[in-house]
Amino acid sequence: xxxxxxxxxxxxxxxxxxxxxxxxxxxxxxxxxxxxxxxxxxxxxxxxxxxxxxxxxxxxxxxxxxxxxxxxxxxxxxxxxxxxxxxxxxxxxxxxxxxxxxxxxxxxxxxxxxxxxxxxxxxxxxxxxxxxxxxxxxxxxxxxxxxxxxxxxxxxxx
Length: 158
Prior knowledge:
Blueprint: H1 2-8, E1 10-18, H2 22-30, H3 32-38, E2 44-51, E3 58-65, E4 80-90, E5 94-103, E6 111-120, E7 123-133, H4 136-157
Antiparallel strand pairs: 1-7, 2-3, 3-4, 4-5, 5-6, 6-7
Helix pairs in contact: 2-3
């Protein structure tokens, strides 16, 4: 029973520092045109299908494979679609949203994604926490995907 409880609480926690301002980094996450240019790991391109950036607003992002080496779970030859709802938005501070795969990915109906932005001497320190993942295998797959996503944001901002 303890193992099941531990697995139900699998969490990805990543930090990344960007040379851009908090406002620039927050805008990259909150503007659908910008998001579509960088979001996703190196192996995918993002198409923003729905983006209602407000508490209670829905989003849907199609991840299109563009590379042979897939750094995520799922069939590397098919699009993957993630979707959810914005739970809370604190401008230039935090974005909290539900996160689920609705096509070509493990169902994560209860997972929660939190992105926090804070000023740092170098620019902005971003903390990404993806919690309530069902097990360690899915946690590890998402850790790799999120790490690549944060690297793609770095490239976009520079």
